[in-house]
Amino acid sequence: MEYAAITFWLAVIVFSALGVYRLWSSLVRPKIVNAILLPGTLVATLGHILGLLITGGTVENTTLIADNESGEPQTGEQPKSKIPLVGAVMIALLPMAGCAVAIYAVSSYLGASILGAMASEPVVHLALPTSGPAFFDMLHQSIALVERLVNAIAQSDLTDWQTLLFLYLAACLTVRMAPLSGNIRGALGAIALAGIAVFVIGKTASSAAGMLNTIWTLMSFSVAVLLFLLIVSLLMTGIISLIKAFLTHDS
């Protein structure tokens, strides 16, 4: 059940990231959003390109931030894999894996104070909601994670450049866990494949307990970051819509 929970919460991370990205893109031009998320955009694009090359695709005229309305990274006019189905999964998986590895590296080198503050309480192993009460427990756990993150940030030294850089990179990398445009079905397959890979490694590795603890720590942190950004983004969207409606009514 633990591995099913990891797969479920990975899906929550990916589609929460997609929700945040689309909310931001509705408020400002997507090109600006991708520029703000440049470190995460770079990691995701490199993963995308690697996925294309591995699966026999062609990479040409690569653009990190397109000049069109989408503002998305581009790798040619028809950057499709030559391997049906599996290719789409790999192309979706590698950007997600790249961002996950980058989050782990950034957390290890820059996020010790914030992760340490969040780890002052036991690591949260987010459960798989299999019933009505479990679903509401899940919501409670999620809000508690956001509260723990906010408290950890408030207790950290926000004048320290390392802390600010960590928060910026964490936001960029978690939001860029969202599937690149046109590959949502591949992302679903990638999430399932990642869950299977964790299951196999967890059953065969000698240090499975430590690995699972690290995974839950980083997943809990990523969930907290994305839910916080999602809450703030929804509030900002509502406020801006209300202001626009008020100004339109006055005119």
Main pleated-sheet profile: 2 strands, antiparallel
Q: Order the strands across the largest sheet as they lie in space.
A: 1-2
Beta content comes to under 5%
Q: How many distinct folded domains? A: 1
Number of strands: 2
**For the terminal residues, how far apart are their CA atoms?**
57 Å
Fraction of residues in helices? over 70%
Q: Total number of helical segments?
A: 9
Structural class: mainly alpha
CA radius of gyration is: 19 Å
Helix and strand sequence: HHHEEHHHHHH
Low-confidence sequence ranges: none
| CA-based shape | globular
Q: Let me know the average pLDDT.
A: 82
List the helices and strands and how they pair.
Blueprint: H1 2-27, H2 30-36, H3 38-54, E1 62-63, E2 74-75, H4 86-110, H5 112-118, H6 132-155, H7 161-175, H8 184-204, H9 208-250
Antiparallel strand pairs: 1-2
Features:
251 residues, mainly alpha, two-stranded antiparallel ribbon, 2 strands
Structural summary, described in words:
With 251 residues, this protein is mainly alpha-helical. The protein has one domain. Helices cover 74% and strands 2% of the residues. It contains nine helices and two strands. It has helices spanning 2-27, 30-36, 38-54, 86-110, 112-118, 132-155, 161-175, 184-204, 208-250, and strands at residues 62-63, 74-75. It has a two-stranded antiparallel sheet. Helix 1 (2-27) packs across helix 2 and helix 4 packs across helix 8 (184-204). The radius of gyration is 19 Å and the shape is globular. The N and C termini lie far apart (57 Å).
